[in-house]
Amino acid sequence: xxxxxxxLDGIGxxxxxxxxxxxxxxxxxxxxxxxxxxxxxxxxxKLPPAERRRVxxxxxxxxxxxxxxxxxxxxxxxxxxxVFSSTEADCDNSHAILEALACADRALSPTRFHNSVHNAASxxxxxxxxxxxxxxxxxxxxxxxxxxLLEAATQAINSGKPCLLLAxxxxxxxxxxxxxxxxxxxxxxxxxxxxxxxxxRAVLKLTLSNDAATCMPQDDLEHFRQSxxxxxxxxxxxxxxxxRNGTVVLDYLDTLRLSIEVCNINPPxxxxxx
Length: 274
Fold this sequence. Notes:
Layout: E1 4-14, H1 21-28, H2 49-54, H3 57-73, E2 81-86, H4 91-101, H5 110-115, H6 120-129, E3 135-138, H7 144-159, E4 163-169, H8 176-179, E5 186-193, E6 202-209, H9 219-227, H10 234-242, E7 246-253, E8 256-264
Parallel strand pairs: 2-3, 2-4
Antiparallel strand pairs: 1-5, 1-6, 4-5, 6-8, 7-8
């Protein structure tokens, strides 16, 4: 793999104890003590009321992080290609379908069925944004963030147009939680641009590496990094929040990882708002 250079225009983030990119910057720079808490999802924006009532956690999460990243980048939603990357997609819905199939009456709600597909979040995003640009939905188990980042960067470079990455995970209810123990919902969105504009915050240089993955110094954040696939992004987000140049290595394949060199252009300011 040759090194890929891509500009980062905007960031969106929600997770346990992380309530948006501005607050996360305070946590990742040490200005604010990290306090673990349930992931707080804001009200769904832009969807019509009928669709809004039907959506589950993955759609609410991906909409929130995607809109935050697009606002930071001052991007036109209708002209953004998207890559949705999720390990398990709608865990609550999958659980409910399996429960129904285990009963004598196996009737399934059509809403449950169409929300069970892996690209459901992409479909709702298209409704909300009015975008007719290409959209890709993928999953790569624990490597889902790195795979999504490579896919979004490659699409942006090949098309010459910005691409929005939305990487997110949610938690299964029991008993599936024991088989796939993701502890909390978390999502990160990045607006990637092949061209440098006034919105550019950093340039990312991506290459494959055999080096060990970068760990988080805080035990609680390191726990999330290891247990939530989308949280594999935390070392990268830390460099960006601190406005430091440097290189981090993220988990990807069993014997191959993704190295990211970060060169900050417009570091975040303290108390920055979207």
